[in-house]
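Interim report, section 4.2 (structural modelling).
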Amino acid sequence: MIYLTKRLTFSSSHVLMNPDYDSDKNWDVYGKCSWPHGHGHNYTLEVTVKGEIPEETGMIIDLKVLKKIVNDTIVDKMDHKFLNTDVEFLKGVIPTAENIVVKIWEELETVLEPGMLCELKLWETENNWVVYRGE
Amino acid sequence: MIYLTKRLTFSSSHVLMNPDYDSDKNWDVYGKCSWPHGHGHNYTLEVTVKGEIPEETGMIIDLKVLKKIVNDTIVDKMDHKFLNTDVEFLKGVIPTAENIVVKIWEELETVLEPGMLCELKLWETENNWVVYRGE
Amino acid sequence: MIYLTKRLTFSSSHVLMNPDYDSDKNWDVYGKCSWPHGHGHNYTLEVTVKGEIPEETGMIIDLKVLKKIVNDTIVDKMDHKFLNTDVEFLKGVIPTAENIVVKIWEELETVLEPGMLCELKLWETENNWVVYRGE
Amino acid sequence: MIYLTKRLTFSSSHVLMNPDYDSDKNWDVYGKCSWPHGHGHNYTLEVTVKGEIPEETGMIIDLKVLKKIVNDTIVDKMDHKFLNTDVEFLKGVIPTAENIVVKIWEELETVLEPGMLCELKLWETENNWVVYRGE
Amino acid sequence: MIYLTKRLTFSSSHVLMNPDYDSDKNWDVYGKCSWPHGHGHNYTLEVTVKGEIPEETGMIIDLKVLKKIVNDTIVDKMDHKFLNTDVEFLKGVIPTAENIVVKIWEELETVLEPGMLCELKLWETENNWVVYRGE
Amino acid sequence: MIYLTKRLTFSSSHVLMNPDYDSDKNWDVYGKCSWPHGHGHNYTLEVTVKGEIPEETGMIIDLKVLKKIVNDTIVDKMDHKFLNTDVEFLKGVIPTAENIVVKIWEELETVLEPGMLCELKLWETENNWVVYRGE
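Predicted structure of the assembly:
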């Protein structure tokens, strides 16, 4: 079993606030991330797939194909967008890194071969990141 | 003459559009950066100062002091903000990396010892950055 | 289940020597790391916690809180210190990366919510690091 | 149980082509990687070993010893070589990252203490890498 | 005056040998880089252009345009190629980093606005790079 | 004129204190860097040399030779040492980054071809560095 990872980046903005909270409560919970005009990040997404190596090709997936799938399904929809309102598959969730990575998983799982998607790592900054394995 | 650099980071959002252009023209000039809801970056700012080494201390400036000056003057005002509307010293300019770095220079020059500020490097992403030397 | 990581850095010095060895034996075992005046590193510590995402906040822990806990418990006690003598929780062990990471785990486990701490990664240089998962 | 990783680099060239395919089929499967004159990479190899910490030394392995083993067994044989023809232990496989990492595992397993080798990570570029755990 | 840099990467192979030397002499001068089957690198190219900021756009050049120019003129011709034989503009020179960076300068100068090209930085590995400023 | 840079690393410890100051004054000037037991860093040193490209070799200096010179003259003397007492060429100066980089210049200038040494960059951490050009 081999694990292969492709790294991609995109630049988006967001606000962290719960619409059921008033602004004081949002400040308590989210601090400066709740500033209503928003802020942004250079997100880095690492997509790990797994598989047995086919003897004929020596590759578990064509990297160009994997890159195109992730770009079409995720990056092109999130890059240079405001994550609170502009991304269909993020509608209805507060766009924390935790929630985003789960939603990206749900999207990728529908377009990758069943059982292939193994781990997603989403960096918000060089000092903070989340990992999700579909568990 | 020694050149000393301090690196700091902040996360902000912006939109690139010229209010005198219509949206088609803004799209032609700024592409996806003109998306009206904005997008964001993890900016990295490298502040370089220069000086002769004082024999008594061996330091051209106390790094803690330099860090506090840059944080008070720049980072705390830009971090987790929307650069088009929220930062006093950016009012009236389109927040391209080029314009931002010049404005940061103008702010830092007023609070650092005359002649000390030497170079600013502002990274928008790991693949794009600008440098300004006050020329 | 989401895994969230916070990265922090500190700069410390240490000597690797077993007080039961003579200096020849220490040289055999630890090489240049046994130089009695010590040497140092920019350590990087990655603290990974895990949890289910609460629907209300979308965050498994407030990153500011996690950062403060790790700073108060670990970083402020190790940063700019000599690890052989200056850190209470490292007393009695040879400060190899392996021993340090286990001791950091023991400290963090007492201050984090039970079951939350998941993995520690401690970098001594860009080419060497250790991982501990409390096993 | 502690996991310790050593990072090493080497620079090699390769071509991806299946000798049973004609050049059109090779282009379909491997794209520009099938260019017959080859291309190259700065490979990064991360070797992770695991072990219990011996109380006497505090180290699961002497890093100098681990580095020498990996250099002698792998790096010196692959560095500045053409992987399709010049490396004995890669003979007979298409030198994809997937195949290379498995072959490196087979070599290292014979020279490291049984059960010590835990994970190999091989970076082809900053955006693509594979992991193998001997499974 | 603003200096703007775009970073791009490509993966190529090469051999360092002077055809007027015999193989012993090539080994003396180029060491393992003279291995006749070649080796390769993930090259990183940083292209710096300079200009005054136009008030209307706030950008000294459209980054997408700069990227397209460098891709068309340089990257697409060097990526996944063997630099000794496959690149028209490198014909007749030994493909050391020093020679390559000068040749890239000559190509880019013909397609960029006169006086705009300011500096090229070409990384062969994370530990070696060259800079050329057209002097 | 080509500028060629070689990057090397070493791990050392130091204390910043002026022996003419009392400990209060040292604390005021150097803060936690004045802790008497010392602390340490993974220093990174970038050595830039310049030259015209000889047509015969295409290299302004053999990188292996440059590396050996810097290792023999600097790295082997500073690595895994306590910079306040263990390094002959640092005797008599407070080992700030500013002072260290000047002393390294003085050493390298005596062993490199006259006029070849161009710039030294010394990183103390990923966020602080100094540059010296012999001016």
